[in-house]
Records
---
Amino acid sequence: MNVTSATQTGYTQATNKTTTTKATSAYESATTPTQTQIAEIKTNEEPTKATTEVQNETQEPIITTQQELEIKQQTAQTISETEESPLATAIQESSQTQSVEQTKATGKMAEMQEKYKDVYTPIPETYSKADEELQTRKVHEAYPNYISGPEFLKIVSSFLEGTRIELGQKLTPAQEEAQKLDYAQAFQKAYDIFGGEEAFIEMQKGAHEIMKKYPVNTWGKDERVHNETELARFTNAATYEALEQGKTIEEARIYAGNLRSSFMDTSYSTINFLETLIKAGRTDQSTLDMFLSQDSQKSREEAYKVDFNSPNNSTMDLREYGIEGNWEFYKIHENQQDMIAEIEKKISQFNFMLHNESRIKEAYMKLDASYQDLGNNAGYKRMINENYMPKMEAGLDIFSKYKIYD
């Protein structure tokens, strides 16, 4: 649909305060950039974790359930980014032996790399066996007995004494309690090998700090990942921008991870997530096969098309203002200029919505009364001001300042 000019409609066309937004003849259907969210599956079977070792913020979130033992299991496998621990003595060595081809940066990236060289070691643009060997050596120099989360969980499993619970089996309260106690004793025996739970967790935290100091582009080891270089560039750029804002390095890493999920193709993480569920016995191969048969961009577009004529439609119709489909979503392009244009378009749309409150209210008041007060309807201004607009402006800064795509 063509965007109608201000003089034709009488509404005030908002302008982008961050950058001059180019007028477009039509707004494309927008789709979500966030990772596919899969419903949490609760089960009382043995909580097998088929995850990879934490590698310097390159992993997507690890799956878990609400069960206390599985949360404890996750804690043993990886340490929250918000926790701080003293650097192990091995981290004192600041120089890196990564190849020049991997670490060489230009322009803004090179400027920030030099500015924050004592604070943040950038993720290499490609995977290198030498990087991985260096990281492994540094970890084991500081922690000779270090093992990864999956290796630790194998030890835990070896100490389980109870009967394995079959997938889908309903447990009685007594069975649930017995399983909980069985895992508790198994974890304790595994912890005791490393001097107790506290000592084990401290070892994991210390090792994780060393991994940050000697990062490896583990995306490059995953055959499903086609954009490991761009993921590294974006993550590094977002981290530098967060540091420029005065965030701590821990806050900057989390900030970068969130933005990466918003603006980069991370469809590989869904595949890895589904494979983990399969190995844990919580879904079957057909689910993964169905996902693999879909084009990720096309499937996102299909998922967020809105049938505005449906009696159950809960999304306000803003098509007359050039906003197609669900107003919250947008496309992810693997092209620098296209991504900038997409973000500018969304900022322009959000500004229009903020500056034309009466027209937006008129749109959501046409919905069924039960949908009018939803956050994405009556609460749209808060969502834009507190979440969407800051995120878009942050993304625009990164793509405007740093070379993410060649």
---
Amino acid sequence: MSWNNRETVVYKIDSLPLDADGKIVLMEPWNVCVSIGLYVNPVDVGAWCYRRRKRVCLYGERKRRHIVLVDPESFSKSRAPIVLAFLEYMLHQHGMGIRETTISQRINEVNKFVVWLGEHETDDFYDRDNFKEILLGYTRFLFDEVRASRINVNTASSRQRTIIEVGRYIFSDLDSDLYDELKRIRKSVHAVNVTEKPDDELAGRMLKIYLNVFNSLSLMVLRFEKFPYKIVIGNEYFWFFPTSVPIAGPSNIGLKQALSNRFRVYDYINGCIRDGAVVSKNSRDVALKNIENANNNRFHSRRIFAATLAAQSFVMLFSANTGMGLGQICELRWTGQYSIENETQGFKTIKYRANGKITSFLISKNFFRIFKQYLQLRDYLIEHSGIENYERLFFSLKHGDLVPLGMNLSNDFHRRLNNCFNFDVKITTRSWRVNKSDWLLRNSDLATTSMVLQNSIDTVLKHYSKGSEKQAQDELREFLNNYSDKVIVSEKSKLKGVSIGQCSEYGEPDVIKEQNSVFSLDCRTPEGCLFCKKFRVSPNLDDYRKLLSYQYVLNETKFLYDNDYVYENEYLRLVSRIEDIAAAIERSGNIPDEELDKTRKLVLQGYELDDYWSRKLSIIDEMGVLY
């Protein structure tokens, strides 16, 4: 086996060659790479036509680049249709205005499918029936991965759906479903990884750190301050020298071993060069010359270091202030020309034109000064790179070149923060988004929260409305005090079984007044039971499974709630009530924790449903409602 660095042709998504009907025309799709904004290197989709591939890094004079080497003997022309189909699919997604981060996710999903395909000899994509068999095998594989807890059910659902969509482009059959007999992997709202709101004290502390780092380092760069430079963060101070261990202070100098030998000449406690009685004259002269050179160079490497760290600090502040996700932040375009409009509730709208259309985002009024300071810092970094402008508002510096922000920004920034200042805690951009949404939900209405976060109301409620763990515990404790003694009954009680539990007096419903229920009390409907004083559950797995099964069916059919008011007042109230009662069963102590965890996990992913709800779901499925 020999590895070959083959010749490739690079296209931008919107410059792929098309025929008169708008179809992509490529003579050799196995040699095609696609340039996508968020990627530093073009994506080698043509390499999917080779069963054996490996990604390597090549180093040049100033920078490195990644390429894919292939084994020529592993070439499979029968894989060409999936390359062409994915390019068609990606072109369509791009034309629809789908975000680059989403397109990046789709590339990753198809790549994982191709990796799985490499373990199987059958890969003929010219034959429709053969492709169906391949997809059936891949679906079984995804189900196995979910059952083994190696991937989330929502991840599996997304991967299956992407391959189905790409398959439609292979056979130019976009309207009909080629896969009626295929078992779909359904998403579950309970498999969504709900990010925890950061503790208020920690959030306040980190915001002060971000702001101190940004102000101190950005002003140092913009005002061309001299080395050594003092950085004050809270009650601590640090000194900044132009060395390979640039920042240290009393709180962390003992953790930096290099300062005890190689850099002894630099005094990180007093911010000066040690005198000749402590260090050699030669070491002192070299250090003084090093500082002089840095103080005469506006673009010294340590100033660039400070500028990039300050820029990352601002991105975290921007995330906390706007509530934007990192994907949105990465894709923000910028031309430098913008207007400001005042909004209600303390926000300003920044409007500008990018890619031929008006773009905007909201920031708080008191954040605008910091935003303008960042724009100055941005201009400094662009000037350093030697170009006139850069199309994105935020970027990174890589080997002297400006590149789009990576999705690892939070990890990289907090790693640098820890190295420089020994701050070993972090809050991700996703957590800042939750923090912002929690504040908005508590201080404004749902529509305003949705507008600021630039998400649908459904997404806000699904991902960002749970608050902190402490708040959730307080709410649960309040519920238990009020209701658990009324709802939970002994397993020996002789009650009538219903679809979601038990009934103490069937046919004689009585509404819980304090619930202000919008549901009519009908003993034949589960929603009526949930808000009835006669409703009971036994603290056993049977009733626990009934409740969770009903919750799963509600989730699978929630799209039938046709407006936000109905969604909030019916669906969310039902789910909340189910969760309250299920929590009471969990706290009863009658069922081992491991059995509770196993049952909840399986049922809320659609497995081992209660028989009644399993039949109900099958009927709905056969009616075609779920698709």
---
Amino acid sequence: MDVPSTTTTTEVNSLSQNFINKNLNAGKKMLRKKRFKEFSQFLPQLELEPSQQPSLVSDVLEEIFSLVAEADTHSSVYYYYDNVALKNLHSCALVNRQWCTSAVRILWRRPFGPFHNGGRKLITTYLRGLDVEERRDLKLKRIKLPTVSPIPMFNYPSFMRHLDYGEMLYAVEAWCAALPKRRPHAVLSVMRVLLRLFLHNSGPLSSLKLSSLGEDYHDEKVMILAEPEIRGLITSVRTLSLDGFDYNQHGLLVRLPDLCKNVEYLQLRGWYGNQDTETSDTTTTTNNNTTPLQKDAAAISLRRLIKAQKSLITLDMIDCKAYLGHIISALDTQSISLRKVKFRLVNFRDCGPWDGLATCHRLTNLEFWLCKGITQKMFTPLINATFPELEEVKMLQYGRGCEKFKTWINNMNGTTIKEDAVEDSDDDSDL
């Protein structure tokens, strides 16, 4: 007599399905391995130039690392690697030789910044790369140099693309201050040697930042850039950031229109003219150390700088209160190339009509962030102008602002949405 089976039909089907799936998965793995083995046989037959393969991989790595390091590039025309970016790049440099090379290239593109703790080690590393003649020149001036060893792993000067001149100057001063004996003109001598080193190894810069250095700094420390042996470093600059020069440094500002004619991205920050600070909406303090002639020279130089450009694409103005009339009137010379204009924390008081801006018919972006002093007289030329390529006009304003200006912005954007406003104690009809 047969013993009844305790296994149901459902259980049998389930066991069968599990068996089939298990063998099917195993078969797929075997098939993948077989296909990979067959495919791998073709890899050695790929005809790639030996010089092409590593450069292709390096280019891809550098592009990836650039995205990691330069995540905040849109916040400013000239930007720095922050601490997070530096940490990420240093981690990448520890993976292997190839990653190290790609990461180092990016790290040393813009070496001088506020995150380098004085930058003395940077200067020491660069000075180790000087040739015999340059070392002899500094030794004759009794400037004690670091030993040649250890020899740098890379040609660091060749990676230089972006220079913050003020941060470099501070780093050189910190390095010279640590010398056993302080020599006169040591800072100028080291600056000249390093700038020549950058020019001979990396060629012209892509971007340059020039900042206000304070009353203790004079033209001789910034005019180095205009010297015949060095000025080639800045003649091809595409990105230029000027942070409110002091009046004792205007010698270089006067020369910039003749030296830098290929600027595409121009940032002007902190240009106050004779206004040091604004204590209220109606009260300003005057800088007694400046003369009308110096103020006029600054305005004329900024106007000449804009007019000298072959193809200016972007103008970004931040926290400016002076020379606005001269700057905006000069934009008519860039009417074909200018695409983006951004005003942030700008006080337009006493600016005059924006006729120069109205001629820039190819604008794609126009922005006003927390600006003041805008009147109907100023923007009337914009109402009468046409901007067929303008994508959007952005505005974040103080107080109520000028209703007609808001109406024009809404018309340009094709909306009737009320613009964002920030409460302000000043409720004048002007913006």
---
Amino acid sequence: MPKKNLRDHTTREIIAFSLLPFGLLTIQTLINTALNMYLTDVLGLTLAMTGVVLSATKVWDAVNDPMMGLIVDRTRTKRGKCRPYILWTVIPVVLTTSMLFFPVNFGQKGNFAYAIVAYLLYYTAYTALDIPYQGLTPLVFPENQKRVKAISVSNIVGSIGTVLPSVLFFTIAGLWGNQTVEQEKTGYFMAALIFSVIAGIFIASSYFGIKEKVYVKPEKTNYIKGLKIVFSDKKMVILVVVAFFSAIANLGAIFLPYFAKWNCIGVLPMDKIMDFLNNLIYKLIHVEVNINLTNEGLLTPLLQIGSGISYMLSMAIIPPLLKKMSKKTLWIWMSLLGAVADILTFIIGMYIIPYNTPAGLVTYIVLRFFTNFPVGMTVVLLIAMFSDLVDNLEMKSGERLEGTVFSFRSLINKISIALFNVIVLAIVNGFGYMVGDKITSGGGLMLGMTSMSQNYTVPLTGTHYETVLTAIFFMLTGLGAIGLILQAIPMFFYKFDEKKFEKEIASFREEKERKLQEEIESAEALEGVHFEG
């Protein structure tokens, strides 16, 4: 029974812990940025079929997530309760992430079936890593203020993981060409493989720099009993509802590549930009290259600049803000301000400075800074509030239920993402979104969505064409406003005295540490063995 020092926090440990969300968010962003477009515009699935792929696996998640939570709560090793899973699951996560983008050619129905199987395997592996990761936070950082700091710093570092695939994925994929579907399949797969391996290296590295500090006695955990304890607390019910609606606020991001590819056709002179880049590279290194970026390859990174910066800044200022207000108050304010920003962005982009003009595109890029600022804060706050709940439940019941709490939170998050994904994809699909066969540059163009950079066409009438584009832009703006408003409403009923909690949990930990030390000294006296920390 090793001695645990609950106050053993170092900057090095926070940095090491931050490598984990960096890797996880790299994979998450890779999926969110590129998977939908790969399934629809490369493998040829409809948006409705893509929605089914994303939702069908949730039936398995209803079993997988609670099962993983139970496994975590029953895990007791020399290396800790949650920490060992970092090493155990990183390779399966890397492999299954790459499998999602494997260049298959089974026809539309065959590709559809493959996508479901691959997505099922991916989420099984990802869940086995994600739930222990979420449970690590209160175990590695037991003290509330340091925990918030660690969550903020780790999410700032993690934000870099969201920026890299957003900025570079389509550029790297384009290195394998975009003139044929086979070239695109290869490009998507190689880009996914590169980012998956990079993410895996960072995830595995975090294992060696962190240590669990909350000692959990070996005992068999009853999952049903754990659920009863968890949901006997009204705060858990409210946080679950909040987490359910918070998925909507982040869902619009899946349409960013579609916006860059279709809504921004003709906004920038792509041929001139490519010539400029090729000439610039030749002048710098005296090597002739032929860069041929697609609309989404160039514009998706530009559109992510404002949101990436705002994410990092918003997370950085959370600790000082929490000295002046509670997590609940900050959550409500950020949610409502973010909703206002999204609504104004939609109005400006549609009616004042149209987004499909150079000035409108620049304006939208700038406005994305303000629309994403609140979202970055709420990501950190939700993790912190669930971690507080784990500690609060331990004080009341004597049970550490990280696995139960975070597995259920993970399940709700996945269900809500899948449900709203199906809804919004079906809506855009209902407006008439479909990608036609690729045609040669010399072929006839069909009326409707025609990408200047990739020769894709969507055979629609002009009216339907504009409706689809408006729907895509609304998903990036108005949908976020709806989600932010919905996630703010339940928080008005969230009752939690943080100042009182901090005093109680500090006293509880001191008493727990004192009893643990007494047990260690007693064991040493009886066995004549000295246990080292």
